[in-house]
């Protein structure tokens, strides 16, 4: 390949490959978050001894919020991936602080739901 055939992206191959690996890691994380929500909901409704209105509400809330957070993680990671492609090529990369803070807060909220659920089910 001669110098005229090279693309802008080929100058930064390592950064683009790292960006793709990061995107795939976020997708795996989203799948895990969704899976945990399904697991808690499924286990709750298979344990007849723990069925009560508040437990049912919390199990449903955990399931729905986990699926919602998983979808949000996938969408945010796709947006971040596309922004990073452009910023790598333009050499103007900035760290995505706000999206990381937002995702961290949302994961903490779902973790709090888990805590409330497990405390209330074991009472």
Automatic annotation (TrEMBL):
Q: Which domain of life is it from?
A: Bacteria
Q: Keywords, A to Z? A: Cell membrane, Membrane, Transmembrane, Transmembrane helix
Pfam families reported for this sequence: DUF202
Offer a single GO CC term for the protein. plasma membrane
**What's its membrane topology?**
Multi-pass membrane protein
InterPro entries assigned: DUF202, IM_YidH-like
Task: Look up keyword Membrane and say if it applies.
Answer: yes
Name of the protein: DUF202 domain-containing protein
For this protein's source organism, the top of the classification is: Bacteria, Bacillati, Bacillota, Bacilli, Bacillales
